[in-house]
Every structure is written in structure tokens, then in C-alpha cells.
Amino acid sequence: MQLVQEWDKTFPKSDLVDHEKVTFKNRYGITLVGDLYTPKNSQEKNPAIVVSGPFGAVKE
To answer: What's the number of domains the chain is made of?
Structure first.
């Protein structure tokens, strides 16, 4: 799997956060890809919010 490294979002990139692509396998062995945003230069634990759509990302 090859991930896009350049900025591919519709919103502007903030100078206050670091962004990286992450992958992991779910319990069914399917590889999922996500975007991880962390505060720039943060050395401590931070709270997290996970935003996800339904399987296949289709509501109806």
C-alpha cells in the first residue's frame, strides 16, 4: 500500500499541528488508513477524538 505524502485535504494545513498518515489492521484483518493530528512540539499525553464513518463510509 502506498500512502499519499502531500497534503490532500480540502481545508488549509495548520502550522499549529503535525499531521501523519497511520495504518492499522482491524479485527477482520482489513487495513485501515487514517490521519493523525497532534499538537506541534507536544511532549505530553493528549486527549484524542476519533471520527469514523460506517463501514464503507456510506450512511444510507
So the answer is: 1
